[in-house]
Amino acid sequence: MSSSLSFESISHRFGTEQVLDDITLTVPESSCVALLGASGSGKSTLLRIAAGLLDPSAGAVLIDGEDVTALDAEHRESGLMFQRPLLFPHLSVVDNVAFAARMAGRTKAEARRQAREYLELVQLGEYARRMPGELSGGQEQRVALARALARQPRILLLDEPFSSLDLRLREDMYDLIDSIRDQLRPTIVLVTHDRREAAILADTIAVLDHGRILQHAPVARIHHQPASPAVNRILGGLNEVPGVVRAGAHHSPLGRIPVPQDTPEGPGLLMPRQESLQLTTDDDARPGARGTVTQVRPSGAHSLVRVELEPGPGEAPVTVAIEVTGTPALRPGDAAGVALGGVVGWVVPL
Ligand SMILES: Nc1ncnc2c1ncn2[C@@H]1O[C@H](COP(=O)(O)OP(=O)(O)O)[C@@H](O)[C@H]1O
Ligand SMILES: [Mg+2]
Fold it and tell me: Is any ligand 1 atom within 6 A of the Cβ of residue 38?
């Protein structure tokens, strides 16, 4: 049931406001691409354009290479799911899921038989006869997903579908999406402002900011090799260390950090993830940088330790954040060492 989806130079204006600016992006068949961005960055607008609910001001939408820009929503064969389930309150669960098939002219019995299969898939087989008002929020979202899948869409378009669920239910939905990806291999565009959700569910993340795609890359790469400080921040990266690249390494108060061979020489920002930095002790063999703890912020199983590094001659002081397990016995004012554990540095030229 899956197809590839491409946006080609999509731009959109509402009145004089430029909401999308030259978006080019391909979602390969059976993959899941997350559109990650802050509220107002244009995510829902792009999804509505994919669904055929909105005509772009410029550009084209392609499904399996075919231009569908002029095709209306009914004929796009996309399955949609939103933050709210939008079930028909007067129809039973099974008839909500059977609705599209009924509209397409199937008999009631056939439409219901097929709907029950999709309810099984979302683990709600027992709830077929209930009314939407008799479901929990998580169950309603499962019905909405079954309804979207029952249309046998070529593309599944999900607009923040889990953001109103509590954390536990959200985790259950992530498991469900995993199992549906295994079984049906749908092509998915997931809109979210939650970078953790994007990282869990998607193969690649496209970071959207003020209507532009700043970077589109596989999940691990976009975390460790952000194209810009803006992407680093949107992905929760806390560190930007100014320095100079020469002779294969970045030189800064963090020390001499080897960088990929094709890194341009000259001034550059090193962006090590807080998870990749480690605290070192005085008797540690690793060649770490030295500094002073400025903050220790526990957050349950982890803590964030901020250390102001001692600048070398001609360098400005810089503070880095290090994520550690548990709560370290450190206080502001304590001396600390910092090292980048076994990772090649990532630098964006300044
Ligand atoms: N129907 C509309 N008319 C006018 N402006 C709109 C409309 N829909 C969205 N916008 C504006 O477009 C921008 C992007 O909105 P949206 O795509 O909903 O962002 P997101 O989903 O990333 O939060 C916002 O500034 C929003 O106010
Ligand atoms: Mg939105």
Answer: no
Q: How many residues belong to the chain?
A: 350
Q: Is the pTM of this model over 0.85?
A: yes
pLDDT at 6: 98
List the residue whose alpha carbon is closest to atom 18 of ligand 1. 44
- How far away, in angstroms, is 39 Cα from ligand 2 center? 6
Distance CA 281, CA 284 (A): 5
Domain ranges (residues) in the chain:
5-224, 249-349
Rounded to a whole number of angstroms, the CA Rg of the chain reads 24
- To the nearest whole number, what is the mean pLDDT of the chain? 95
Cα 26 to ligand 1 centre (Å):
22
**For ligand 1, atom 10, which residue shows the shortest CA distance?**
14
> Bigger pLDDT: 288 or 94?
94
For 176-211, the pLDDT digits (tens) are: 999 999 999 999 999 999 999 999 999 999 999 999
- By three-state DSSP, how is residue 142 classified? helix
Domain 5-224 has CATH 3.40.50.300: yes
Confirm or reject: Cβ of 37 under 6 Å from ligand 1: yes
Q: Which of 285, 290, 217, 268 is nearest to 33 (CA)?
A: 217
The CATH H-level (homologous superfamily) assignment of domain 249-349 is Nucleic acid-binding proteins (2.40.50.140)
pLDDT, tens digit, 9 for 90 and up, residues 244-265: 999 999 999 999 999 999 999 9
Residue 20 has pLDDT above 90, yes or no: yes
Contact 180, 156 (CB under 8 A): no
CB 122 within 8 A of CB 145: yes
